[in-house]
């Protein structure tokens, strides 16, 4: 598991490490510089001609120390500092003194030259307003060096990227490699900052979770190495009932594909059995395409007693994919929401129905005791919160948490970087897996199925949702490696879910 910090959290832990734990800030700075050089070696990037573009803050001091170490390795290093020297931090002032004592000079005017590497050490995580003036010109110059072939490494975060939101503050350096210190920051994973970050390396410099006594991080994410400890345990003497029974209520006329994608994902995630409630027009298609599923199909409207029988049988309910928003779908959702015995995952049209009908919204809210998971994409979240796109883009995380609190549920808010929030929980999950190839029809149906399959095996709603989102992204990474970002489909995601089991058993490598 990795913690993903906001700027104020990182500054708090950094200061605590120096002031309370007792590791001097200059030691932390030197370890940061050593971590950057180590990362460059790992990438096979030991340069000949280097430009260090440093600011007056401690990020600039990190950059000066990196340049000094690269010079020791034989590189020709040009040091340039931007900003007001009166605002130089004490640590950076000492780095300047060390360089001068070693015979290096520091430019205050950037001269035209050619470099094979540029070290971006202008701002770090402290930037909170749009760049302008000298800094704006310098960021453009660094990006121009990149276009000419220079390898750009940013320290902590690319200059111009907001560490908390990933927003671009006017303009930003576009790095090939970002080396950050202690813990990853949210801006590394939230777009568009994620695109500017390039390859991310996190280096330990001596800041530890001992400093969490000052306040725990507000976000975390998973890593591939976490999987064996996260996946539900399999009993060698279990049977199909042991591993959970999922009831899927999905599909409508001309919308059978959602049933297949979601249902197959339930089983691929490890559940033992799946039963589908869907209109009779989908029966033959499902029997041919998905023979593992049991079916209850209806002609005009579902028989309430048969729905109740299916609910009696189930361990978890998944509802909404391809369901439609007509009266029959609304009636089905009422049946399901009134029965509060099982955890429930609602996606797609199920969410649209809740957004459109206040009665359904209240029924969903009342399911608090047995657990509810919703998986809205941006449009569905906007409808549920009765807001607009501009507000969503401004205050996305806040809206997600508010929705979780209003519905007393877990919200997996799908986007390029998916957040998972739970009512009453301070920390959020921020997903770091996946790629843009997953922006394809049916991908959300697959996610709902994965989560449902994990809940069927006994995982709690929050943990199962976080893991489901992560597995969904890993399947996307595997699918894109085979099919490419342009050519992959939701069916490819379903197929690649079995790869996760192979990895858990040690038979496969990422």
Structural class: alpha/beta
The geometry reads as elongated
Tell me about the largest β-sheet. 12 strands, mixed
Q: Can you give the mean pLDDT?
A: 95
Q: Determine the fraction of residues in helical runs and give it as a percent range.
A: 40-55%
Strand content: 15-25%
Roughly how many Å apart are the termini? 17 Å
Assembly type of the shown chains? Answer: single chain
Low-confidence stretches: none
Topology:
Layout: E1 2-5, H1 7-21, H2 25-42, E2 49-54, H3 58-72, E3 76-81, H4 90-101, E4 106-107, E5 117-121, H5 133-147, E6 151-155, E7 177-181, E8 184-185, H6 193-197, E9 199-203, E10 219-221, H7 227-230, E11 245-249, H8 257-268, E12 273-279, H9 283-289, E13 294-298, H10 304-313, E14 316-319, H11 327-338, E15 344-346, H12 349-356, H13 358-365, E16 372-374, H14 378-385, H15 389-394, H16 396-407, E17 410-413, E18 419-422, E19 428-430, H17 443-456, H18 461-487, H19 490-504
Parallel strand pairs: 1-8, 2-3, 2-5, 3-4, 5-6, 6-7, 7-9, 10-19, 11-12, 11-14, 12-13, 14-15, 15-16, 16-17
Antiparallel strand pairs: 1-10, 17-18, 18-19
Could you walk me through the main structural features you see in this protein, from its secondary elements to its overall organization?
- This protein is an alpha/beta fold.
- Helices cover 44% and strands 16% of the residues.
- It contains 19 helices and 19 strands.
- It has helices at residues 7-21, 25-42, 58-72, 90-101, 133-147, 193-197, 227-230, 257-268, 283-289, 304-313, 327-338, 349-356, 358-365, 378-385, 389-394, 396-407, 443-456, 461-487, 490-504, and strands spanning 2-5, 49-54, 76-81, 106-107, 117-121, 151-155, 177-181, 184-185, 199-203, 219-221, 245-249, 273-279, 294-298, 316-319, 344-346, 372-374, 410-413, 419-422, 428-430.
- The strands form two sheets. A twelve-stranded mixed β-sheet has the order 8-1-10-19-18-17-16-15-14-11-12-13, sandwiched between helices.
- Helix 18 (461-487) crosses helix 19 (490-504).
- The chain is elongated, with a radius of gyration of 26 Å.
- The model has no long low-confidence stretch (mean pLDDT 95).
